[in-house]
């Protein structure tokens, strides 16, 4: 009996202790924050420093940080009427693209969510084609067609070109949201004599508003940051903020401080929109589900 007890005690001592879950989560958090710092925070910090470099002293090796900082580049940016015009043009085009994408996506999303038909998977893949094919190839094809029909170098042409890229986001999010709407509501409305337009406006739109918000945010950001199709279809007559950034970065000499200022102006609406979305998703589970199903 004594031998068995001692052998059991030896086995208990030899078995290694399992790692604690808390310690695993701690190391996982460190790795996640380190990756975010290296890939996001550090580049943004360097870009911010370039936007604040004093032109009198510059920033040259081996200096790790600029010798002096200045707001002269930001002042010049806000005094540049062309830059401000590009910003307002981008905001206007993005807002119109968001509304147009929502209007065009609702019928297709409803068909994918509620109507069974053959080759549905093939249709879904066709809808996602603008996201699969490189934007430059799509832009060249669209530009050739728009040049023939007179939409090239116009704001409506740029809006339509950007809508092609944002429509898949809106359709996917709305389809995921419409799947959760009970079909009995639509059938009851049809029984009472409601037209398809009334059903869409009074039933589908109010119940699918989380999907409209999630898809609208993605469409707005996608339109605001779009470059390839905008540049091919609209430049140089239609100059959005991304095209303006390309003109700052292009040429034989690249001025890093000016490019850094424009970069932060491009990022500002995106950061603000996703901050508002994050706040909204804390209070609305449907909105979080619609964004997550994308």
Strand content: under 5%
Q: Give the tally of β-strands.
A: 0
Q: Kindly report the average pLDDT value.
A: 81
CATH superfamily of the largest domain: MetI-like
What can you tell me about this protein's structure?
The protein has 294 residues and is mainly alpha-helical. The protein has two domains: 20-70, no CATH class; 80-292, MetI-like (MetI-like fold, Orthogonal Bundle). Helices cover 77% and strands 0% of the residues. It is built from 15 helices and no strands. The protein has helices at residues 2-14, 21-51, 72-79, 81-114, 120-127, 129-132, 135-149, 155-178, 183-191, 196-207, 209-224, 228-234, 241-249, 256-283, 285-292. 31% of the residues are buried. The model is unreliable at 1-8 (pLDDT under 50).
Keywords:
disordered N terminus, 15 helices, mainly alpha, 2 domains, 0% strand, 294 residues, MetI-like fold
Concise overview:
The chain is 77% helix and 0% strand. By secondary structure, the protein is mainly alpha-helical. The protein has two domains: 20-70, no CATH class; 80-292, MetI-like fold.
SSE topology:
Blueprint: H1 2-14, H2 21-51, H3 72-79, H4 81-114, H5 120-127, H6 129-132, H7 135-149, H8 155-178, H9 183-191, H10 196-207, H11 209-224, H12 228-234, H13 241-249, H14 256-283, H15 285-292
């Amino acid at each position: 009996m004594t031998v068995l007890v001692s052998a059991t005690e030896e086995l208990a001592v030899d078995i290694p202790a399992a790692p604690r879950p808390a310690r695993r989560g701690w190391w996982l958090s460190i790795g996640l924050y380190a990756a975010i710092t290296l890939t996001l925070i550090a580049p943004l910090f360097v870009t911010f420093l370039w936007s604040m470099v004093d032109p009198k002293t510059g920033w040259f090796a081996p200096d790790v940080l600029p010798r002096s900082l200045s707001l002269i580049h930001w002042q010049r940016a806000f005094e540049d009427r062309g830059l401000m015009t590009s910003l307002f043009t981008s905001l206007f085009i993005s807002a119109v693209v968001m509304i147009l994408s929502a209007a065009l996506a609702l019928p297709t999303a409803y068909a994918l969510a509620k109507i069974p038909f053959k080759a549905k998977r093939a249709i879904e893949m066709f809808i996602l084609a603008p996201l699969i094919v490189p934007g430059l190839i799509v832009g060249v094809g669209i530009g050739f067609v728009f040049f023939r029909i007179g939409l090239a170098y116009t704001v409506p042409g740029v809006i339509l070109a950007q809508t092609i890229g944002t429509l898949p986001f809106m359709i996917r999010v709305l389809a995921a949201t419409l799947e959760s709407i009970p079909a009995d509501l639509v059938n009851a409305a049809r029984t009472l004599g409601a037209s398809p337009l009334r059903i869409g406006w009074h039933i589908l739109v109010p119940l699918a508003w989380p999907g409209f918000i999630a898809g609208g945010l993605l469409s707005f950001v996608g339109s605001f940051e779009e470059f390839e199709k905008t540049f091919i279809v609209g430049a140089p007559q239609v100059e959005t903020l991304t095209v303006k950034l390309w003109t700052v970065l292009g040429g034989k000499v690249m001025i890093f401080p000016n490019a850094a200022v424009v970069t932060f102006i491009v990022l500002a609406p995106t950061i603000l929109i996703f901050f508002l979305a994050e706040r909204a998703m804390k209070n609305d589970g449907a909105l979080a589900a619609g964004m997550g199903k994308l």
